[in-house]
């Protein structure tokens, strides 16, 4: 029995039904929480040290590191029962979807910094950091999360892959 199933068995009725119906979403959200911490740790480490003048680049690097962790965790846990694609094909699709998500994720940060001018010397350090966190880690991550969950279920880890990439039915 999985840990999630054991927890769900102890939950009251409505919670148990919600957990059962949305187990993939809950696992995906857990992976998202873990990779959120990885992304932000790398982002702030780089942003406050070697990439101080390039916060968007630092955010991109944080996202890339978190994406690698995300693939392993989503493949082996969140969407373990889905798929049927060969791993190289699946990984290519995963990283293609994640590349699009990276653009979605950094766009609010870019707009905040370079369109709205929410950076020093135009605003104080506190305002800059709050704007960076909200645009890069709240708004950007939220938009990218919605995109990833939909795209992963649709293309990367589909419910059933009954045909090969060449259109020939799988045995």
Automatic annotation (TrEMBL):
Superkingdom of origin: Bacteria
TM helices/strands, residue ranges: 25-45, 57-73, 93-111, 131-150
Domain GtrA/DPMS transmembrane: 27-157
Protein name: Predicted membrane protein
Gene Ontology biological-process annotations: polysaccharide biosynthetic process
Gene Ontology CC terms: plasma membrane
Bilayer topology annotation: Multi-pass membrane protein
Subcellular location, record wording: Membrane
Homology family: Belongs to the GtrA family.
Signal peptide start and end residues: none
UniProt keyword ATP-binding present: no
Presence of the UniProt keyword Transmembrane helix in the record: yes
Keywords assigned by UniProt, alphabetized: Membrane, Transmembrane, Transmembrane helix
InterPro entries membership: GtrA_CellWall_Glycosyl, GtrA_DPMS_TM
